[in-house]
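Recap from last week: sequence in, structure out.
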Amino acid sequence: MSNIEEPVAAVAELDDEQVLSYLLQHPDFFIRNSRAVEPIRVPHPVRGSVSLVEWQMARQRNRIQLLEEEITLLMEQAAVNQSLFSRLIQLQAELAEASSLQEMLDRLHRWARSLGLAGAHIRLFADSWKIGAPSDFTHLGLARTAFESFRIPRMGEDNHFLGGLTGPELLLLLPQAKQVGSVALSLMGAQGELGMVIFSSRDAQHYHPGMGTVLLDQLARMLPGLLERWIERA
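Predicted structure tokens:
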């Protein structure tokens, strides 16, 4: 009697992509196989394993919790922004009522202090404003060429800088300031050609890259018009 070898069909093991593809193409799979859903167990780091239904419910709870946290953060940020913009409107009115440039600068500084900051400073590019002698505000001037040594490596094409300054950078931008941990700087003018407004904090971590700059944008647009009441543009 001859030996008859029966061919054995090789069963290819399904991979994740094939299983996923099949389920996506057959969305009614779990409806047709509802009895098989409950026994399916999913590995769990604490409980060993859980049912597919429990695993899905846990995922949904986690998603809901994350969404609730995001909504809470957005509401808190909206409340902070609303408060800041209300104070910004008040600041604009106070600066407009100033009777001199020095009084306007003092009011801006006090406003910054009311926010818990070390202070607020304005520096003007000397070739954009007539602040040379005999002006009393030559100390506001800053040579554009000197500023370029800071702007190019630290700001690039951005109109804002948020973070800490080195010793030489402090001497360049805020030579009279003390105990400066970090700053928020915004250039003024459509091309950043007029100068800058700088807010300083004693906290080295207070200002850092990635922070919002909406308030800085508003101030940078508002200040040049107020400055022109006291200083003539070159």
